[in-house]
Amino acid sequence: xxxxxxxxxxxxxxxxxxxxxxxxxxxxxxxxxxxxxxxxxxxxxxxxxxxxxxxxxxxxxxxxxxxxxxxxxxxxxxxxxxxxxxxxxxxxxxxxxxxxxxxxxxxxxxxxxxxxxxxxxxxxxxxxxxxxxxxxxxxxxxxxxxxxxxxxxxxxxxxxxxxxxxxxxxxxxxxxxxxxxxxxxxxxxxxxxxxxxxxxxxxxxxxxxxxxxxxxxxxxxxxxxxxxxxxxxxxxxxxxxxxxxxxxxxxxxxxxxxxxxxxxxxxxxxxxxxxxxxxxxxxxxxxxxxxxxxxxxxxxxxxxxxxxxxxxxxxxxxxxxxxxxxxxxxxxxxxxxxxxxxxxxxxxxxxxxxxxxxxxxxxxxxxxxxxxxxxxxxxxxxxxxxxxxxxxxxxxxxxxxxxxxxxxxxxxxxxxxxxxxxxxxxxxxxxxxxxxxxxxxxxxxxxxxxxxxxxxxxxxxxxxxxxxxxxxxxxxxxxxxxxxxxxxxxxxxxxxxxxxxxxxxxxxxxxxxxxxxxxxxxxxxxxxxxxxxxxxxxxxxxxxxxxxxxxxxxxxxxxxxxxxxxxxxxxxxxxxxxxxxxxxxxxxxxxxxxxxxxxxxxxxxxxxxxxxxxxxxxxxxxxxxxxxxxxxxxxxxxxxxxxxxxxxxxxxxxxxxxxxxxxxxxxxxxxxxxxxxxxxxxxxxxxxxxxxxxxxxxxxxxxxxxxxxxxxxxxxxxxxxxxxxxxxxxxxxxxxxxxxxxxxxxxxxxxxxxxxxxxxxxxxxxxxxxxxxxxxxxxxxxxxxxxxxxxxxxxxxxxxxxxxxxxxxxxxxxxxxxxxxxxxxxxxxxxxxxxxxxxxxxxxxxxxxxxxxxxxxxxxxxxxxxxxxxxxxxxxxxxxxxxxxxxxxxxxxxxxxxxxxxxxxxxxxxxxxxxxxxxxxxxxxxxxxxxxxxxxxxxxxxxxxxxxxxxxxxxxxxxxxxxxxxxxxxxxxxxxxxxxxxxxxxxxxxxxxxxxxxxxxxxxxxxxxxxxxxxxxxxxxxxxxxxxxxxxxxxxxxxxxxxxxxxxxxxxxxxxxxxxxxxxxxxxxxxxxxxxxxxxxxxxxxxxxxxxxxxxxxxxxxxxxxxxxxxxxxxxxxxxxxxxxxxxxxxxxxxxxxxxxxxxxxxxxxxxxxxxxxxxxxxxxxxxxxxxxxxxxxxxxxxxxxxxxxxxxxxxxxxxxxxxxxxxxxxxxxxxxxxxxxxxxxxxxxxxxxxxxxxxxxxxxxxxxxxxxxxxxxxxxxxxxxxxxxxxxxx
Length: 1275
Fold this sequence. Notes:
This is Synaptobrevin, putative. By secondary structure, the protein is an alpha+beta fold. Among the domains are: about 30-110, N-terminal domain of TfIIb, CATH 2.20.25; about 450-640, no CATH class; about 695-765 and about 930-965, no CATH class; about 770-910, Jelly Rolls, CATH 2.60.120; about 965-1075. The longest helix has about 55 residues, at about 1220-1275. The radius of gyration is 39 Å and the shape is elongated.
């Protein structure tokens, strides 16, 4: 009767309160195709990516990343990044969220508060206040306000009291008044008639805004402070055309023109405000027809109203002179980058003579490049339906983000800023960075936002290794010194990877909790391709390694050589992470063709490659010459086994402590080859051959597994082989140690099985030290007086392959000249003579002898022996190659103990026993798993031959069966020996992966099944496992989209337990990454100074124009000063203890006093924010610190801002006007004189106005008296 578990079948019942041994601690998988909005911070070199069903992704240098939790299942319309800071905004139809990736505490949210849903977001350059458009044609302004005097608290979002109905400004200019669509159908869409779909402002005047409203044929301009219409840019001439609806608008860099484009990007409209009429409407200056340059496969208007795609314009100009930028739009070449539903187009025009200079169809270059370079993206399941129309309609654009790398300010952007573009599109395609070539008009390169390179065979070649500390430091230094060469590296320069912590590790003042996490990073790599991803399991980080840096570091410098990948059978890192989390010492490669088998090893610490063995067909007893182009071995692995000649028979003795190559030959035979380096008389390595002729007649081997079976009579147990035969021929157990068959059976589950796997077996203890240990001691207990002469024991030091690097033997009285002294000999098995230990007589040496071994240099050992205050050293150090990873002792007098100090200073000791292996082997009874498409059957090995003397009876014990869901296929099956579990991953028809952990004996679930959709686009996944501090980390590597998934599984300890993941922020450096202050003056400390413009306008026109700073100050301090009270559904405030108290509402306090106190508190908070969050870049102007911050009066009022010296003012004028200091002084004097004259004239006008007003009042009074007199006369 079978014990059946149906946990993998969703139709099977589950216990009401199941108890599991493990739980999923977390999942940090990043699917790049989930993100449809990318925003680039040109000052910090960081990308912020937003997706509907994913956390916010912040990318920095080397693709280091940080995930910010964000509400799932919400369509996010837009995102804005406060450049130079770590604060950003994300907008959906029902919320505006302010987030920060350097300070997670204090996120704030604004909701419509009963108003219309949001449709668009805009924040003027250099300001912290912004505006959102709504579905009913209105715009609402918001600002950031400090809510606490604590400088560490972030400012929060607040609605201001300013709401403007922009649609009402447009109604007088429409032939038919536009009504807001309030139908149920419009409610279900993100955009509808009357929605504000695009907003922009003037570069030199943040008080002037323009906007496009859905259904309005024109662009509306208004002034914020007066809430009045300034101008309506009329586009009624497009009425009746096929593409008449406007989708977006932009103001030219100089502020002289307004541009807009239609929904399908077929028309580009340009207005000049100089054409404004008396009724405040402005005629169309120029309409550029782009219908011949856009994709003929247009989308639908319905898709636009659903906001599946965005339409945008980005503008830049050419520079006239070096170091200066033209402020005259009319005489500059204007570069306009347009993107629509199916198009990305650059148009170069001249506005003075209305000339189109060039049109560049960027979408055509993208399609052609991707069709030839990246067709694997189009072949995924999500895009298979449109694979035939790949070239014609490959991209459906979501968003295009130019990387503004030359300047932050919009009026200084040049055509260089339109060279690098981030493009997001639909259909499961990942965001890409396209680098354009200005000379040829094509593309220089395309970089996909993917973690695994598409040109590298990650599946199945991915190798997991842990570099030693020395090599890790070398790699970090090489990455730091590698020059930047690609556009990707120039753009992504923000953040810090975990390897950069090593530079500060020696500085104790910089050491913080978690700074030692870099010691436990691992690399997933394809060695000969010099590609690697650095994984930090404990801090949940993943980032790419620089390929050029890898090519100069170990082990890639030696392994990145030309090899035939078809001949590579095995590549393994030793010590294996399945046994212990130790640094990788060796990389073993096995090559095979039709005539030869070659094994090579590479020493990572010494950067040396060496030959291990070479076997031909004759040595492996294979007949014939083989078929050209094939391999003479089908599969191979490295097992725990050591082969040595027997001293009592001709058979080979098999031990469990060592490494051997286990190979299945082309004819089904098995070869076990010792890798320790020992040779037989013929110069060949020790090996055991099991020819296929010993198997049952007519059988074909499907799978072979090796394992150790306990045997009380043998210290190491017995090495067993389990064969699975095809065509329903059953399975067989073969005893390698005795060279005989143990059992042969063909039960039904073996007939259906396609794979055989050992789930539970005796495993030799892992290595007891790592190659990082350069000094250790072995203490050997001695008797009071040696009983007789002879050898008392040996201390052996092994490398990762089980080869003896140092063998130290101790004896007594074996030197004829010194019969009463202890003696030693060091050998590699070459019979070195015994040498006396001077002073180590039997009467003096008591209790114990201590052997001290120290590694010096790359391949030398220095040893000494001490006891009872006597020390004896070797004159000539022992020379060898390799790193010691295991120490064993065979000591007959008593105890043997190994002790050493780790690099972190921890003292470690091990008791070394001669028979330590036998105890662990005898405690475990092996089990086998028979895996088929329908079920997993686990059988106890001992049941296969209980009372079975003939070797052909069926098993006697009840197997454990786990049925697989019929709608899923088994994709991965591996054994987690450390916890007695197996990892099972299945896949359904929709691409969902289901992760399960079963007991390796009973097949019962030990963790609740977990499903993930993150790998739906992957045809195959490779699973790598590593255990660190009792936490199992699973890394899923996708073969198609390059997705890296990280799942960590922890044990349930009965009570609630915090996760073991220690979050280390990549952007926690507060000298570089700080939240945005609440005011534009504080924000200016994070921004570069405004560019020096070459003025081409007249002096008087410049004199009458208010400076940008004055306008911004008025907006913040007056127009947008008042805020609405926050509601329960609005801003998410910090804890009550950190929230500033509101002004008292007692009637005894006047309104003026309330305003004064509020103003003082906010000003003080702003001042503290500025002093607490200053970036490393020097501010554009010096702001002195408060002189008495600790005095009680310091908090009463803000410190006055210093105006600056006269020289600084003159220098600023000279730079702005491009004149000398003398001319600037004259201009300043002239300006002061003219301002005085202007002031006097204004005073005269004021006095004259007062007189006129008084006269008017007198006439009004006389008229009233005359009217009363006439009325009296009538009566």
